[in-house]
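Hi R.,

As promised, here are both runs. First protein below:
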Amino acid sequence: IISAIALLVITTTAYLIIHPLEKKIKTVESAARRIGGGDLSARAEVDGKDEVSQLAYAFNSMAEHIQRLIDSQRELTRAVSHELRTPVARIRFGMEMLADTDDIEDRFRQLAQLDGDIDELNKLIDEILTYAKLEQGIPVLDFEAVDLGELLQKVAKETTALGVKQKVTVQLPPQGTIAEAERRYLHRVLQNLAGNATRYAKSEVCLSAGIYEGCAYIAVEDDGHGIPEKDREKVFQPFTRLDDSRTRASGGYGLGLSIVARIAFWFGGNIKVEESPRLGGAKFVMTWPIKQKNRNRLKLNEPS
């Protein structure tokens, strides 16, 4: 009788332990089958802190990442096909005009326009490849100590050298302000933000940087019209143009800020846009951990 009671207790206890785990495993299996069948919105709805629950959370995270990548790939494909049509159509038209004219000056003019369209295609392809590299996997990042003040001055000089009409000013941080970053990508972020600001600023673009509560930041602000609060999340989506003032006429393809958002994510930080308190236009601020060796303990705020 004692043996039978002990066996019953053990069996009951085992059932009470195993049955919830079995249900969770079947939930994960069902979600996996739905995703395999093409339903990318399927998730394993599991609560708890046991190993199977942790597996379900990891599965859901993977599923969300896959869905975001596929949605992004579809959007990127549609946008790229749209963006490529314009320069390709101009090249085709230019070739036809070139074949129909015997005037030397007109030929040189058409060749110059063709060269400009080809250069535009090259820039677009470069932007697309950079975005795809940052979007589809973990890039190889070589973090090193970067002098933020030195980088600000370098980008300000490069931006001014482009012959922009606006004044490019710099608010230098204290001398020796150092942060760990991938120099090449951080330079790209500051370049993109500065270039974006010069398209919409009236008379001034200001670059700044510093360190606050264990995080480094860089900021670019302008005295343009700014960005409405309802549109501040949209500007980081690829190929986004908010209004007529942000069209091809002002340059760019709508990928620069998307690249900035991806770099911020891989730095373990984030990027936001707000109103510039001093200049009144848009102010873009990117922040990231000053010590990259601790990034595995940080929760990454992935942009949509």
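And here is the second one, sequence first, then its structure tokens:
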Amino acid sequence: QGEFYSEFGTFDVKITLPGNYKIMATGDLINGEAEYAWLDSLANEGDKLHNLDKKAFKKRIKELKKNNDKESEEMKTLHFHQEKVHDFAWFADPNWIVRKGELKFEESGRSVTLWSMYLPKNAELWENSIEYLNDATYWYSKFYLEYPYNHVTAVDGDMSAGGGMEYPNITVISSGGSKDMLEYVIMH
């Protein structure tokens, strides 16, 4: 019983998928200017969603649950690159709600982008996920080493993997549980 062993290396990966899918992966998005602009606009929508009153929030969640089932005929190819990691993972879903944050390290002045992507049915549970990513990255960086990569991402995988699974830059988390448990799994 134990964890896997992998050597560290460089991953240079191109992924082609339908245009309406939101995708996050290990590494930096090389050809991502348009993709990041789209994700930023979706993050603004995600923030607005959580500022609605309870009735409007529930109505909007119902709309989101049934609106995104169609696959786009337009395809896109995104290019991810990351050095000095032991694995590569990617996740995509057309239905995710997108949230974005930023953590700036005091000593180095460097910033890390925080991404959270989750299904509409889990929106209440994931409401504070950017805060959880921020706190976990901040405290681990403060007590160990500064987080060396450009983004930290948590995605709602709606699967049963015993809570979640972590990969370089990204973790996939199964739905269910409580806000406290979500914070714990993100921190893990």
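A quick note on the second one: The chain has a mean pLDDT of 90. Let me know what you think.

Best,
J.
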